[in-house]
Amino acid sequence: MGELPQAKLIIMRSVQQDFFKEEIQNISKGEEVSRHSSIRSLDPIVDDNGLLRVGGRISSADMSWEEKHPILLPKNHHVSTLLVRHYHEQVAHQGRHFTEGAVRTAGLWITGSKRLVSSVIHKCVICKRLRGKLEEQKMSDLPLDRFTMDPPFTNVGLDVFGPWTISSRRTRGGQVENKRWAVMFTCLSTRAVHIEVVETMSTSSFINALRRFTAIRGPVSLLRSDRGTNFVGACKELQINSEDPELKAHLQEKSCTWIFNPPHSSHMGGVWERMIGVARRILDAMLLKENCRLTHEVLVTLMAEIMAIMNARPLVPVSSDPGMPAVLTPAMLLTQKIDPVSAPLGNMDLKDLYSKQWRQVQSLAETFWRRWKQEYLETLQPRKKWKSERPNLQVGDVVLLKDTQVKRNEWPTGVIAETIPSRDGRIRQVNVKIMRQGTPKVYSRPVSDIVLLLSNGP
């Protein structure tokens, strides 16, 4: 017998002596295995080398001795785990059925192998790299600016969408075409929207759109946006930096705070991202109906009509109660109108007319905010997804960083350098350190772009 078969024999016999000592002794004495034994149903036997094997019922089958009577091993032993890892690598990191088949073909019978194989595959770093799920965390509570009863567009989320090709002018050779984009400002509390058309995706164009917006809708206390390059550039040019320690003096002058979401975290701006999808669908329907060539004037007009349609949308399910015919919409607060009102009858003093208009405006505003609190805020209570709390990522964890530009096999591997806790203490944003062409770089990412490979915790 060679050295390798002899070493295998000694290791197997040692493992069995630790876990199946009583069964081996009973079989050697010609006695039955105890009724309380976990391997009684396998009718175990002992071969000439003193190894415990499966007796079973297929001894007459046309198969090799090792396949008919595989060696018995316990699941709670390090040797069994090493063997499962070995055969899992032999089948190129396939699933549980492939791995179990390879173990059984090798003449081994591991008690409770399904759970052991599943555990090994669950901890396999290569399998995590190939098929591991992205991390997630319980959906956070809404920020205060989502349910404050401030005037419309006091707290705003903004984003840019487009482009659309327009005809700028006619020439002898045809028409000169340019592109246009649109900036959408979404009120975080009333869900009203305001759209401005911009000519370029530059900082100056965005600042002009922001100035037009504030000139029409009034000053803004809070701006939320993603980390688009035009937004970052505008923020620097306006000298608004949410992380600058010298911000207090400037904020007292500008009365505005700009908060950027982490990169690649569009789900954190869902309140305005969803409005962009609605605007696109309305515009597509309009263009299909009109069937006309876009010009700058036509596009601006269409955006104004889209804005009116979106602001007339119901914020809550429409009630079937005949006593509540009015639908709660953002336009109710913006325009102070529910439906067109006919001219008043009879002779009225100008002073009374102004008084009644003032009272009507106040009444409509109070009605909106009362129904907003009673009907709309209730819809923000449930968590639509990410309902369970998950373990937090920790500094030192080895992770896989999602990169939509390349295939999954080429996603970079990094180490978490810093965790950024939310208000509730849960980790939803991390800084990951990776190597790019021999140079260490740190990227800020949400946990939804992270695949955990090796945990640094217990």
Structural commentary:
- This protein is an alpha+beta fold.
- 38% of the residues lie in helices and 20% in strands.
- A hairpin with a 2-residue loop joins strand 12 (427-436) and strand 13.
- Helix 4 packs across helix 5 and helix 11 (270-290) packs across helix 12.
- The radius of gyration is 34 Å and the shape is elongated.
Count of beta strands: 14
- Summed over residues and divided by their number, the pLDDT gives a mean of 82
Strand content: 15-25%
* Element pattern in H and E: HHEEHEHHEHHEEEHEHHEHHHHEEEEE
Please give a quick description of this structure:
This protein has helices spanning 3-19, 21-28, 65-68, 78-90, 96-105, 113-123, 125-131, 203-217, 229-237, 247-254, 270-290, 296-311, 330-334, 350-379, and strands at residues 45-46, 52-53, 71-73, 108-110, 155-171, 174-187, 193-198, 222-225, 257-260, 398-401, 413-421, 427-436, 439-446, 450-454.
Topology:
Layout: H1 3-19, H2 21-28, E1 45-46, E2 52-53, H3 65-68, E3 71-73, H4 78-90, H5 96-105, E4 108-110, H6 113-123, H7 125-131, E5 155-171, E6 174-187, E7 193-198, H8 203-217, E8 222-225, H9 229-237, H10 247-254, E9 257-260, H11 270-290, H12 296-311, H13 330-334, H14 350-379, E10 398-401, E11 413-421, E12 427-436, E13 439-446, E14 450-454
Based on the model shown, name its key terms:
single chain; 458 residues; alpha+beta; five-stranded mixed beta sheet; five-stranded antiparallel beta sheet; 14 strands; 20% strand
